Amino acid sequence: ARAYGSLCWNLSKVIPRKDLPRIYTMYTPVDLDKGNAGRDLQFQDQNRRPEPFNTLDADLSWKSSLQDLEATRQDVIDEVRRAPDRRIDNMITHLDDSARLLRMHLIMSEAVRLDFHFARRKILTTAFGVGVAGNVVSLAALYLVPSVWTFAAVLSGSSIAGAAGVYLFGNYQLQDKAKEMASDAFLEALFHRIYVREVADGDQFVQSLWHRVRLQLRSAIETIGVGNLPKVSAGDVRQLDAIVDDECAALRRRAAPQSRTK
């Protein structure tokens, strides 16, 4: 107990965690018939579970303590043997996590792109409407009253100038909107709008995914520009859904030990 306490005290100085990891207290068995000089190690066979400790005399009072050490030692051996399975499981988990992150990134990126293009389309439509409306009125006036051709020409020129002014002013506002779209406030509001049900349900998993995606999305917007974000198709999202819902589950079933699948 004193050695265990000293070890924990020293580890607490170098491990930046509130709780220490599990410490396996065990021993290395030796062949007592050869004495301490020989120390011929007797490791457990890989295909059998630990049997009752029988290398020492039954009258020794510390036999039960060695049995506990033997059980702990066997736990360590089992953990080492499970390392390949855990590596496979970690790789599948990493694939699942990456697919979920990429799916959210694509959905949010497409939402930003559509919002920006909707604003730009609105500006173009307004400018086009101003120009067309003015020219239609001028042509109608010229058709009905040919003598007012001067007024019709002035009205047509004014409508074209007004359309150009609307477009330039709208483009200026669009640049400000592009900068706003890279802000955390806009992206957070957009996330709450897209994932309204998950936010209402308090889904902490979706929230954690968003906190990891937000920085990458903002970096992409600032780097290539919101107007140059690539278009995301519904097929791309469906492929990621298939990876998360079907392929990762199938991989976990194939990687599961045979004893669990039977």
Care to describe what's here?
The protein is 73% helix and 0% strand. It has 262 residues and is mostly helical. The longest helix is centred in the middle third of the chain and has 62 residues, at 83-144. It is elongated and about 120 Å long.
- Sheet with the most strands? none
Rough outline = elongated
Order of helices and strands: HHHHHHHHHH
What value does the Rg take, in angstroms?
A: 36 Å
End-to-end C-alpha gap: 43 Å
Question: What structural class is derived from the secondary structure elements?
Answer: mainly alpha
Specify the number of helices: 10
Beta-strand fraction estimate? under 5%
What is the strand tally?
0
Q: What order do the helices and strands come in, and which of them pair?
A:
Elements: H1 2-12, H2 35-38, H3 63-81, H4 83-144, H5 149-181, H6 184-194, H7 196-200, H8 204-224, H9 234-255, H10 258-261
Helix pairs in contact: 4-5, 4-8, 4-9
